[in-house]
Amino acid sequence: MDIKQFKAGSWIQQSRYKSFSPSKINIEWIVSDPQINQLLEEANLKLGELNAISAIVPDVNLFIKMHVLKEAVTSNKIEGTRTNIEEAVLPERDIEPEKINDWEEVQNYVKAMNDAIDKLKKLPISTRLIKQVHKILLTSVRGQHKHPGEFRSSQNWIGGAAIQDAVFVPPVHTELNNLLSDLEKFINNTQIKVPHLIKIAIVHYQFETIHPFLDGNGRVGRLLITLYLVSNGLLSKPALYLSDFFEKNRQLYYDNLSNVHSKNNLEQWIKFFLVAVIETSKNSIETFNHILLLRKEIEEKDILKLNKKITLAKKFLNYLYSQPIVALQDVIDELKITKPTANAIITDFVNLNILKETTGKKRNRIYTFEKYISLFK
After folding, report:
1. Could you give the CA distance from residue 316 to residue 341 in angstroms, rounded to a whole number?
2. How far apart are CA 194 and CA 64, in angstroms?
3. Residue 286: helix, strand or coil by DSSP?
4. Looking at the structure, do residues 236 and 352 belong to the same domain, yes or no?
């Protein structure tokens, strides 16, 4: 089917409202729009560049952790949390009580992403995997009473004080099995020749339209994008996350999704999605380039001044790439060194302007690798 001819579905009259019943998507899609094809070519090129640079960055997994953390912060921000990336890297002991719930939601997102990436080594993307992601996301946080890891068995809605004035009412729960089966088949259908980025754009739209959970659908749907890219080899490392683009263009994100089921305008959603891939890839490439420059400056200039301490300094620096805010005890535990030695290496890094003490206290001090964290803002 040509995407131009797509009919999103139909509105079904229920007792007091109309729900939207989406069309199934497991078919061979044809793209005849020249603009989409041009954007698709550019998006694939940028993804290739990102893949290439992530392959040559030494110890790339150290930096991937921060990419995942940034995605967790931004995806949860779309849902209303207020944790920033500095708070997200802190251990629970350093989080203010009034911020702990938002912090826990971000940590759950990181756990869900890492767990799913690991499971992809043995499992395809499936409803089973999606439910496991959802279960981790909602464990012991807001939404924990809305059946984590289980598809809904009642009606939900988006916007509005009640279902009668909702902005959008997803399909009734009795349709979920058929719709999710169709979605799973489409994700894993290797017989149809649909470009991967077109495919995941359609998958994301369909998942958000089905809205299969009582809570957490947005986060699961955005996480699904990265899982698909990794699962199908478009990314060798999970280094691309679209939540930052979606958050900065939040109204356009919602409008373009909404216009698919209200106006059958799947083309515009795909264009928006491809632009998101292009711009986010550019930003991720730029971030990796800045990381390489910063690393070169510190390793080839700054810590060479430490003479006999260079081996310890390099070990400490590698730790900071994955944990850029530390306290004295963290350094003692991670590097397995004495308190005086830890104090000395921290002081050296402060004097070299690598670390900055951010509390102003004499005790329980916290040190921040600000130049590095700023690359992910």
Report:
1. 12
2. 29
3. helix
4. no
